[in-house]
Design goal:
Length: about 210
C-alpha cells in the first residue's frame, strides 16, 4: 500500500551536469542524529522509549508536530501528531523482535487501537511495529488507518533518514571488528606494515593508529 502522506513532493528537475560535486557534497548536508543511528542499528534490541523516539522523528518528518504520551495510560496511543495545534494523528508503537517473539500483531490488538482512535476523533492513525501483522489484521487498514510493519518501516527510514540509515547499515557490515579506543565510534581495521613487518590497526573513522592486541 502506498500512503498518500508518505509521498515526498517531487523536486524540480535539475539541469544535467558533468560535475559530481552535487553527489559528494549534497546540498543541505548535515550531521547525522547519533541516537537515531544507534536505534536503527539495534532496532530489535531497542527499548520502547527509544522506539517511540524513532517513530516520533519519523512522524515529524511527515510534517506533524508531536507529543509522546505513553500508550500505557491512553489505550495504546503512544504519540499524538498535531497540525495547526489540532490533534489529527494517533500513533501506536510496538517494538517486538521477530527473532524472539513468535506472535505477529493480530486483529484484536489492531481493532482495539482503531476503536480508540475513532472514538477520539483522529483523522489519521498509524500502528507501527518492528514485527508483522496477521492477514486479518492487515485487512483493517484503510485510507486513514495505516499499518506499518517491519518491511515498510525500513523503507520509510531509508527514505526519510537516508544518512542515519546508511550509517547504521555501514557499521552493521563492520560489527565483528573492535571499536576504536580513542574515538569510541569507529572500527579498527587490521593492516600489515611491510617495512616494520608487523600488523597494526587503523580506525576507519578517526584515522588513529593502534598496535594489534
Amino acid at each position: 500500500m502506498v500512503f498518500r502522506f508518505f509521498k515526498k513532493e517531487d523536486k524540480e528537475q535539475q539541469t544535467h551536469s558533468t560535475s559530481l560535486t552535487h553527489i559528494f557534497q549534497p546540498e543541505g548536508s548535515a550531521q547525522t542524529d547519533a541516537k537515531l543511528v544507534q536505534i536503527i542499528a539495534h532496532l530489535d534490541e531497542c527499548k520502547s522509549n527509544d522506539f517511540n523516539y524513532l517513530v516520533e522523528k519519523l512522524v515529524q518528518r511527515l510534517g506533524f508536530d508531536t507529543q509522546i504520551i505513553d500508550g500505557i495510560h491512553d489505550s495504546g496511543i503512544d504519540i499524538i501528531g498535531f497540525q495547526q495545534q489540532k490533534k489529527v494523528l494517533a500513533v501506536q508503537c510496538k517494538a517486538w523482535n521477530p527473532k524472539r517473539n513468535t506472535n505477529p500483531l493480530d486483529k484484536k490488538e489492531v481493532l482495539a487501537f482503531k476503536g480508540k482512535t475513532m472514538s477520539d476523533g483522529y483523522e489519521n492513525s498509524l500502528f507501527v511495529t518492528t514485527h508483522y501483522f496477521t492477514k486479518p489484521a492487515l485487512d483493517e487498514a484503510s485510507d486513514n488507518f495505516f499499518l506499518i510493519d517491519r518491511r515498510i518501516l525500513h523503507d520509510l527510514l531509508a527514505t526519510y533518514f537516508p544518512k542515519e540509515f546508511s550509517e547504521a547499515f555501514y557499521y552493521e557490515t563492520l560489527k565483528e571488528l573492535k571499536a576504536c579506543p580513542t574515538c569510541q565510534k569507529g572500527k579498527l581495521i587490521r593492516l600489515y606494515s611491510k617495512n616494520k613487518r608487523t600488523y597494526y590497526t587503523l580506525c576507519e573513522r578517526c584515522q588513529g593508529y593502534h598496535p594489534c592486541s
